[in-house]
Design a protein that fits this description.
Elements (H helix, E strand, L loop, with lengths): L13 H23 L26 H18 L2 E6 L5 H10 L2 H5 L7 H10 L27 H9 L5 E8 L6 H6 L13 E8 L15 H10 L2 E7 L3 H29 L7 E7 L9 E2 L2 E2 L19 H11 L15 H4 L42 E4 H15 L6 E4 L18 E2 L11 E2 L4 E2 L5 H13 L3 E7 L7 H14 L11 E6 L17 H5 L7 E4 L4 H13 L4 E5 L4 E4 L3 H10 L1 E3 L13 E6 L1 H17 L5 E6 L17 H8 L4 E6 L3 H8 L7 E4 L10 H7 L4 H11 L4 H25 L4 H4 L8
Parallel strand pairs: 1-2, 2-3, 3-5, 4-5, 9-12, 9-13, 10-11, 13-14, 14-16, 15-16, 19-20, 19-21, 21-22
Antiparallel strand pairs: 6-7, 8-17, 18-20
Length: about 800
């Protein structure tokens, strides 16, 4: 569809077209007012400099286009009785969404003090980008939003996450042409290959080509319609082009394109649902090409503004240094003819207000955009059924995530009817040993299937067939934000790819906790496997436990970090995480066979407390310990216990205490984290002055950072130090000095009272390290006494 026809034709009657254009003008007027005005919201007198905010900030360029889209979506919602909401991808389009939710009445319902009258308009305008007010982008404070507008690239994946398992929903996703240049957005065009037209909803992308970013042209606006159309069709879309700058023509063209798109979606879904046939077809989308800063100042100080990058932010500086601009602002705002849009009291005229949908059909009031309203509890199996039989510490071996996979299989099965739980990941579900889930579900996949493929089907609870961490994260976030539950499993080293996406989601959770009208959503759960200590074939590139450092930077009432030492603890932790609300839970677990330490009853107690003394491992009962050995993570726990067995065999009089940490945030002070231990409780575990040798899964500095307020300063942490490549599992620990031999030496070095006995044991440990190095050079595997070590043999 183009603007080539000279005659204005389309589905809008002249009267409806007039009213829709007036509604658009009202939205534009509110948007300009939010950016500029401090007072005089209805322009009942000529603008004075005192009516303008002392610091004018905001973004105008994308706003009029988004206002245009919003009024047209309102029309099709009413005409077709659609369940639809709006995802705003372009950066800093806040005035549009705030203004439109105000016009439809939702904003004043959520914020009664921003009333639909002149006083409310004044508050609406003043609060925007003003101290104590709201931000310039679409934010958690904006009704109808599930998408933080501060960082670009995730709108389309969020939209698809919202559409999964929502067969009656259409997500209108507006994509800025600058945003379209980001890697995550470019990837998310492929999401059509994972959408089931029977059981899922639909996504309607609206690619908003206004031609410019901050000061550069955009790529997709400069390649021509033919090439752009080829690109989008190649990604599985059928683009409908709407292009021009004349409002009367554009309203007709947009109305026609939207009707064609909505009816195309209905046809695809209707055919699939009637026949049961899910063969993939091209889904409709719209390419809207309109001027950047449309309807704004055309020329300022002799330079063209409308249709150029100069309209990106504030197109007109209005302050004491630019006195002529005040009259230009006044003229610009009056060009929308506010006296024809609002009555004397400041209310939108009834004939215009009637254009908006009603009740929950308003996009700002759609319950899917406040997902906690729709959230129901998962049906949870009894995780104890999957317990590893641990008759004594270390007497059994198991692959922790493989055991977890059986539990997740049951979670999937129990919630199949509710269709509110999915597992996401970048092609790593099998690699991370969660393959049991495929006993009850498939990978959802709507592209071609060949004879040797496994577990692919048009419908499934697993979405891991796309090798993109960004896509997995975005889909899951959209799924959670619209009231469902999920899990993201990923290699530990590569979860960093979504660091900034985690940032945005954590900020969303932090802000929404302070908004009573936003209901809590299910937690964002990460399972990080294939971790740093289990990379015997991948090497240095696959080693980075630093996501934990990144996570703990966020607000303490949002983040939780768990490092269960064995499978039974992992089951207990994951059961807790899947039941939790409004957190980011990070769980680190191994997939290789490892000794199992606690039976299920003990594991539940230990995980509930989050930290504790393992009395069966130490020998300090009834006495002050000479040394405390702390451990956090499956591999550090193994090495600490191996070190303890050496110390107890060769130094039987040495009083040793072993403290294991599951909940990392227990180490932080109670004044800084809700899970943190009081100083008295911390001291009762770690003492106030004895040396603490602490073996940690990640970077040692994190433990020092978490414990810097504690009384006991004799803390010595061993962890990952950026050493190790293709080598044996034990050699990874040796190279980073986390192994049992270095730990024993560390204890001896801290306790000079051990004298000659300690000296001989230290020499023995050095000899063992030499023996280890020579053995792996010859045999390519760890020594038998490492591979075959058991706790029982050294008690």
């Amino acid at each position: 569809m183009t603007t080539m026809d000279a005659v204005v034709t389309g589905p809008l009657s002249p009267e409806l077209g007039r009213r829709m254009n007036a509604y658009w003008r009202a939205a534009n007027y509110l948007s300009v007012g939010q950016i500029y005005l401090y007072d005089n919201p209805l322009l009942k007198r000529p603008l004075a400099l005192s009516d303008v905010k002392p610091l004018v900030v905001g973004h105008w360029g994308t706003t009029p286009g988004q206002n245009f889209i919003y009024v047209h979506l309102n029309r099709v919602i009413r005409k077709y009785d659609l369940d639809m909401f709006y995802v705003a991808g372009p950066g800093h389009g806040g005035p549009a969404l705030v203004g439109n939710t105000y016009l439809e009445g939702t904003y004043s319902e959520v914020y009664p003090d921003v009333s639909q009258d002149e006083a409310g308009l004044k508050k609406l305008f003043k609060q925007f980008s003003f101290p104590g007010g709201i931000s310039s982008h679409v934010a958690p404070t904006t009704p109808g939003s599930i998408h933080e507008g501060g960082e670009l690239g995730y709108s389309l994946s969020h939209a698809f996450g919202a559409a999964f398992d929502n067969p009656g929903l259409i997500v209108a996703c507006v994509i800025g042409d600058g945003e379209a240049e980001t890697g995550p957005l470019a990837t998310s065009w492929q999401s059509t290959k994972f959408l089931n037209p029977i059981s899922d909803g639909a996504v309607l992308p609206i690619l908003h080509l206004n031609g410019y970013k901050i000061s550069n042209p955009t790529v997709l606006a400069r390649i021509g319609d033919e090439e752009l159309g080829q690109f989008l069709r190649g990604c599985g879309w059928e683009p409908l082009f709407v292009e021009g700058d004349d409002p009367e023509e554009m309203h007709q063209l947009m109305a026609g394109a939207l009707e064609e798109a909505i009816e195309g979606i209905a046809a695809i879904q209707g055919d699939a649902r009637a026949s049961g046939e899910t063969t993939r077809r091209r889904w409709p989308m719209i390419v809207l090409k309109s001027p950047k800063g449309w309807t704004g100042p055309k020329v300022v100080d002799g330079l063209q503004v409308e249709g150029t990058f100069r309209s990106h932010q504030v197109p007109l500086l209005v302050d004491a240094d630019h006195p002529d601009h005040l009259a230009q602002l006044d003229s610009w705002m009056r060009s929308y003819q506010p006296e024809e849009l609002f009555d004397e009291a400041g209310r939108l005229l009834p004939e215009l207000a009637a254009l908006a949908p009603e009740g929950d059909r308003r996009m700002g009031a759609n319950p899917h955009a406040n997902g906690g309203l729709l959230l129901s509890d998962l049906r949870m199996p009894d995780f104890r059924v999957h317990a590893v039989d641990v008759r004594s510490p270390g007497a059994a071996e198991a692959k922790d995530t493989e055991v977890l996979g059986e539990f997740l299989r049951d979670v999937v099965a129990l919630n199949e009817e509710q269709r509110n739980f999915r597992i996401f990941g970048p092609d790593e579900t099998l690699s991370n040993m969660l393959g049991a889930v495929f006993e009850v579900t498939s990978r959802q996949w709507d592209a071609q299937v060949q004879v040797n493929d496994e577990f692919l089907a048009p419908s499934g609870r697993v979405l891991d067939s796309m090798l993109s961490e960004h896509q997995s994260e975005g889909w899951l976030e959209g799924y959670l934000l619209t009231g469902r539950h999920g899990l993201f499993n990923c290699y530990e080293a590569f979860i960093h790819i979504v660091d900034s996406m985690f940032n945005q989601h954590a900020k969303w959770l932090k802000v929404t906790k302070q908004l009573p009208w936003r209901r809590p959503i299910a937690s964002l759960n990460y399972l990080l496997a294939s971790h740093v200590w289990q990379q015997d074939h991948n090497g240095f590139t696959h080693q980075d436990p630093g996501f934990l450092d990144h996570v703990v930077n966020k607000k303490a009432d949002v983040v939780r970090v768990y490092l269960p030492p064995d499978a039974n603890c992992l089951l207990s932790v994951m059961d807790h995480c899947l039941r939790s609300r409004h957190y980011v839970n990070v769980v680190v677990a191994g997939k290789r066979a490892m000794p199992q330490w606690l039976d299920m009853e003990a594991a539940v107690v230990h995980c509930t407390e989050g930290i504790g003394i393992w009395d069966w491992a130490g020998n300090d009962q009834g006495a002050e310990p000479d040394v405390v050995l702390g451990c956090c993570g499956d591999t550090p726990t193994l090495e600490v216990l191996a070190a303890v067995s050496i110390l107890r065999e060769h130094l039987p009089d040495l009083k040793i205490r072993v403290v294991n940490v599951v909940d990392l945030m227990k180490l932080q002070s109670a004044s800084e984290h809700p899970h943190g231990l009081s100083d008295a409780d911390y001291d009762s575990l770690f003492t106030t002055g004895q040396h603490i040798i602490f073996a940690f899964h990640g970077y040692p500095q994190l433990i020092h950072r978490l414990t810097y307020r504690r009384t006991n300063r004799n803390l010595h942490v061993r962890g990952y130090n950026e050493e190790g490549t293709i080598t044996t599992p034990f050699d990874m620990r040796v190279q980073n000095r986390l192994d049992r031999y270095h730990l024993v030496q560390d204890v001896i070095d801290r306790l000079p009272q051990l004298g000659a006995t300690g000296d001989y044991l230290r020499q023995m440990m050095r000899d063992k390290l030499v023996e280890h190095s020579q053995y792996i050079d010859v045999h390519g595997q760890d020594m038998p006494d490492i591979r075959n070590w058991t706790w029982d043999a050294h008690r």
